[in-house]
Amino acid sequence: MGAIKGELAGLIDAVFAEWDSVVSPGCALGIYLDGEIAYSRGYGMSNLEHGVAITPDSIFHVASISKQFAAHCIVLLAKEGKLALDDDVREYITELPDYGATITIQHLIHHTSGLRDQWELLRLAGWREDDLITDDDVLEIAIRQRELNFMPSDQYFYSNTGYTFLGLIVERVTGRSLRQFAHDRIFEPLGMTRTHFHNDHSEIVTGRTQAYQPRPDGIGYRISIPVFDTTGATSLHTTVEDLFRWHQYLQRFLADPANEPYLRCAVLNDGEQLDYGCGLRHSERHGVQTVGHAGADAGYRAHFITVPEHRLGIAVLCNLSSMAPALATRGGDLVSVFGTMGGDAQPQILLQVAARLFLHGQSPAEASGLQPRGRSSDSGAAPPLPPQPESHTSSAAPAERHAPR
Questions:
Q1: How far is 359 from 384, CA to CA, in rounded Å?
Q2: Residue 133 β-bridge partners
Q3: Looking at the whole model, is its pTM more than 0.85?
Q4: Of residues 150 and 348, more confidently modeled
Q5: What are phi and psi of 342, to 5 degrees?
Q6: How many angstroms separate the CA atoms of 69 and 67, rounded?
């Protein structure tokens, strides 16, 4: 049983009450604190047609949360000397045209390559939302581009193409698909038994959630699942329980000074410091570091964040396009009350703030009870590698087996 019980558990559950129904899609929640799963629950339905409820063990497509795992595969290869982050991408993607400037692997990781985004290119080429998209489709349309959007490191432009290319680089360096390499080197060593890169849209996955969108008339839902055979930028399937194991590993990886070159965020040619590195957004608010990523594809929405200083992590995985899990894990905001609280009160206050922020965008001061909600003309409603594994006491998640190698 996790550490969150009683009144606080009820507070968290109340935030999800709108979706905690047998007639609604919903989400799975995981809160990780001090080396254990402090709270995990499912709300709503995994499959409306068959009456299957969401649980912490339900599998979700988590879209761009995938990027940190693709980047980490590259890091593992770099640590072994099989590639370098400053290598020219054309050493591995030989089909890519010469644009007159070197695009490095690090440019792909940082979204500073200038490569045009695959989804926009495919839309312009006439692909529809329910068309099958493969790695070959992405590669073919990317290499047809005659120029970049900008010279490498001149700008930041979020490019899924770069992360599909990272997956291809892993495949070409190792002779294994990204799915197989990530399984062998990350998921299996960490005991993430219900996690994989999904590279076959027709594959049956036991325990996978169906995803939905609200119908245009506002009555009921329609099925909305991505039809992808492409990995790297997207297509990770996982659970909130498996993400706990990743959270534990990531905390150690972030704390090791030897990993700083791999975690380093981008710096543009004009000297501007960005907040994106290693497939993660690195933020600092009120002196507290947060690291995480969001994801959205078709009807799936997801957010994962870790607050290393406070050994906190939150994952919210949803199967309804109108849900907004990023608001549930606004790490920089929910630690903003730390300065006003001390000692043992901090974890409890943190979790209460997190609970009240879930999906509703309440300000941290209001959430902590330090400020009244209504002001002036307000209606009163808030606008919506390898150290030894740490042990933990939660029975909900077995201890990790090994670190990625």
A1: 7
A2: 228
A3: no
A4: 150
A5: -140, 165
A6: 5
